[in-house]
């Protein structure tokens, strides 16, 4: 399964998501994000709900890649912590599968500046579902 070919939907372009790498051993995906100007608040950072979208994207694609494209997670709960004002980008996101069961999946993601400063973290509890077709 090639990285960029798996990314479908207008939301991927909207949030400036780009596949970088997937490590099948640790089930960790690395993605790059670049927020468009419309995502930036008067404070100069990315709006919080949109940051959650970056983290959700990284967590979701970690599971999709870990299941070789067979499944996609359906979130039951997402918890996010903002550690700093999130600059427009470019940003690096890392999502990983913490634990995958038949009925529930635990996922996590982190968002970093390019110099490695942690900016935000999220966890998700989700259920595995067949990956929807395009």
From TrEMBL:
GO terms for molecular function: thiolester hydrolase activity. Transmembrane segments: none annotated. It comes from the Bacteria. Residues 48-117 form the Thioesterase domain. This is Thioesterase domain-containing protein.
